[in-house]
Amino acid sequence: MPAMHIPADDATLAETLESANLPALLPAIAQLTGDIGLLERFPPPSTPMMGAVDGDLSPEDQAAIRALAFEALRAYRDGDGRLPPLPDPEQLHKLMNWCAGEPLPPQYVPLAIEEAALDHPDPRRFEWDTPPEPATLENFRVLIVGAGFGGVLAAIRLEQAGIPYTICEKNDAFGGTWYENSYPDLRVDVPNHFYSYSFEPNPDWSDHFSRRDELKGYIDACARKHGIERRVRFGTEVIEAAYDEPSALWRVRVRGADGAEEVLTAQAVISAVGMLNRPQFPSFDGLESFAGPCFHSSRWRHDVEFEGRRVGVVGTGASSMQFVPRLAEKVSKLTVFQRAAHWASYNASYRRTVSEGFKWLLRHVPYYHSWYRFLLFWAGADRAYPIFRIDPDWHDPENSTGPINHGFRQAALRHIEKELGGDPELMRKCVPDYPPLGKRPLLDNGWYRTLARDNVDLVTEGIQQVTPRGVVTADGAEHPLDVLVLATGFHAGKFLWPMRIVGRDGVVLHDRWDQGENPRAYLGITMPDFPNLFCMYGPNTNPVVGSVIFMLECQTNYIMGCLRALLENGQRTLECRQDVHDEYNQRLDAELEKMVWRHPRVRSYYNNSAGRVITNVPWKMYDYWEMTRSPNLADYELR
Q1: Is 350 inside any structural domain?
Q2: Helix (H) or strand (E) run with residue 256 in it
Q3: Are residues 570 and 603 in the same domain?
Q4: How confident is the model at residue 52 (pLDDT cuts 50, 70, 90)?
Q5: Please, are residues 368 and 72 in contact by the beta-carbon 8 Å criterion?
Q6: What's the mean pLDDT in 422-427?
Q7: Do residues 338 and 364 share a domain?
Q8: Helix axes 22-33, 368-380, angle to 10 degrees
Q9: How confident is the model at residue 275 (pLDDT cuts 50, 70, 90)?
Q10: Residue 462's CB: how many other CB atoms inside 10 A?
């Protein structure tokens, strides 16, 4: 790790330390001083699952930790600026245990070194073992589909490897879902100091859960820094990718913004199209007849005036929960049409801005950003994993799946009742009839309090039809509206759709996946009969705990390992073996049966029509990281 500068006098340093997250600060100081014994002076803080991570240290311990940090940082500031070598695994394990507030399995040590960049600013940087000849690289081209977080990440690693590539992006800018969605108060629901590339930490996030424009700006900045812009074709949509076996090439048909089509060729294709990408529109009778503005929330109409108007919102999922509270402040009447209630938890940091002192510490205190990122990883990922598991011996299986899940339910119920003021009718409508976390975990952005407003109605009767003047529900009631917003989600389970992907011997991927009903891939990345085709954010790789960017980094690391195997060994194609693919998916399905998403009362976009979970990963983040550290070439046919 490069040396850092402490640009502060004693008074400023002492004042700034008041902003520190102490569970991250003390391990950083112990690593900086090389005195791991500092940890033994203080009881480890407790780390709430999926919640705030400030710990519960006593005022006396807090003051003592800040005093230790002050002396250590003053000595570092006035010294030669050299940083100590990385502690040995046993010492790192002690640092991790104190930071997390509980004993962690020792095998997490190498993961922490990577994910928190404890020893190198980019531990996952691609480096060749045996660099291929320049002509070999020049004759191997990769086509990336999509320029969101995944596509930009893949491009950065290809850039490091010197492998030629082209990104095809249907939009006219970077960002993916963070470009397409722009509704009011759109923000991420994973803390940003973890929801970011491990090798591109950003100490300047404005919020702990940042908003859309800042996220899109982060992607833009990363793309510019790594020289990605010159390799992207904006306004270019991939229509079809077909594998040509004699030439071992993918022939990719693309359509430009002007409608003109052409065919590009590549030795490998990386799909980075995301999952929440194609909006899903409802099939209500008469929808097209509505006289006022009507649009999907992912295609927000910024030209529409909401002040003083009657607005209807169809859907109560993640998007709706974010923008409805802001709409309610503007409109004369807001009618929310709910098909199913969702569980939402409270996080005190969700709308909290990052203080200038906190930013300063992230920027200038050695190792502090790394330990804060590790703390967020543990609290929001593998520590939270047990809450999603089904306990077969649990005494109340209809309402929860085990003691931890039950505790989450009780806390959520108390929060809902408080926010709704105990209104029994709203409680009846808002409390789901399935265990917590069976559907996408949501964060309360003022949702329940908004539903209790005088100008807001929550309607749970089904929609019978849409008329030019509003919505008619199944009970015959007509709800007059001036504007209708469809917060009806995405075709999340239709992976790689609507692209047509044709593999070896003319196999069509959509047909192989039962018209999209049963998508499967080995590790969510590769499939038999589709040589040199790689998926990012593919089937069963949606991390319900943790960060999708963590998953994307794992997948990119694995894909680059596959490309390394091809180019260093002089092979043309790499194709997943059918038996390996099938055995993995058998294990996957067995694990999924133990998760809350397979509870009999749960149905969501996680499931296909038969109930099988097709989107989510059932493994811990550590397990998936271990699976994807490097490809086992015995799993593949190399030709």
Answers
A1: no
A2: strand 249-256
A3: yes
A4: low
A5: no
A6: 94
A7: no
A8: 130
A9: confident
A10: 12
Question: In the 3-class helix/strand/coil scheme, how is 434-449 assigned residue by residue?
Answer: CCCCCCCCEECCCHHH
CA distances in angstroms from 289 to 285, 293, 464, 467, listed in the order given: 9, 11, 14, 6
pLDDT in tens, 59-82: 999 999 999 999 999 999 999 889
Would you state the pLDDT for residue 277?
82
Q: What are 167's strand-pairing partners?
A: 144, 232
The terminus-to-terminus CA distance of the chain in angstroms comes to: 40
Cβ neighbours, 10 Å, residue 34: 13
CA distance 228 to 26: 38
- Asked, for residue 135, whether it belongs to a domain, the answer is no
**Paired strand residues for 500:** 240
Task: State the sign of the Cα–Cα–Cα–Cα dihedral 418, 421, 423, 424.
Answer: positive
Output the furthest CA–CA distance in the chain (Å, rounded): 78
Rounded to the nearest angstrom, the gap between the alpha carbon of residue 460 and the centroid of all alpha carbons in its chain is 30
Locate tokens 């209790």: which residue? 452
Q: What pTM, to 2 d.p., does this model score?
A: 0.96
Percentage, residues of the chain above pLDDT 90 = 93
Residue 363 scores a pLDDT above 90: yes
Residue 261 belongs to a domain: yes
Which CATH number does the domain housing residue 219 bear? 3.50.50.60
User: What's the pLDDT score for residue 1?
Assistant: 67
Please determine, for residue 51, whether its predicted confidence score (pLDDT) is greater than 60: no
Percent of the chain with pLDDT over 70: 99
Phi and psi (nearest 5°) for 471? -125, 135
Cross-strand partners of 636: 576
**Eight-state DSSP code of residue 253:** E
Domain hosting residue 498, numbered range: 140-278+492-632
Residue 133 resides in a domain: no
Tokens at residue 515, please? 């018209």
Quickly state the pLDDT bin for 50 (edges 50, 70, 90). low
Over the stretch 562-571, which tens digit does the pLDDT of each residue have? 999 999 999 9
241 has a pLDDT exceeding 60: yes
Shared-domain flag, residues 33 and 116? yes
**Closest to 551 (Cα-Cα) out of 564, 536, 534, 563:** 536
When divided into structural domains, the chain yields a total of: 3
In angstroms, the CA 5 to CA 274 distance is: 39
Is beta strand 470-473 parallel, antiparallel or unpaired with respect to 478-480? Answer: antiparallel
Same domain, 311 and 441: yes
Q: How far apart are CA 464 and CA 284, in angstroms?
A: 7
Q: Give the H or E element holding residue 241.
A: strand 236-244
